[in-house]
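Feature request, filed as a ticket because there's no other form

It would be nice if the structure record came with a short human-readable summary line next to the tokens. Right now we just get the raw output. Example of a typical job, pasted below so the devs can see what we mean:
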Amino acid sequence: MDGANSPAQFTDGKAVCMVSVKGLKDNWQKWSDNHQEYQKLNPFSHDTRPTAAPQRGHDDYGRPLQGSLTAHRGEDAHTHISREVQELCKVIKDIGVQSHNAAHGRDISVEFGKLFEHYVTISNKLVGILLRARKQKLVNFEGEMLWQGKDDHVVITLLQ
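Raw output as currently delivered:
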């Protein structure tokens, strides 16, 4: 048997692992080939082909490859933020005051200061979650940004 192709045995006290140089070389070559193909699609790589990367206007432009770890992390983050927005809406329902509004019917609203004091034990990202909820048309409030202390009396209205 050839020394370069014969498997080496390693033991860690629990299992015996057999590794051949040829197997390591084949695995490395496979990884290298896959990486080169990936770099052809990577717009930040020097190996990028002008037609390989998605162009502006394509559905894939600015998005990670389907099935990649980056895509999976993005989906997980989206799910997490959606849960936080739902939790925020529940908190507003619980601590808010119901009022009658001619334009929207019955509204539940709360002042930012009260919401901040209550919500600080749940999350430290209240303002970011409020901005996300407003973007989804779940809440409404005056101004672009809310600041603790300065905007404590700004009314936040739950729309749905």
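Something like this underneath would help us a lot:
The chain has a mean pLDDT of 82.
DSSP finds four helices and six strands in the chain.
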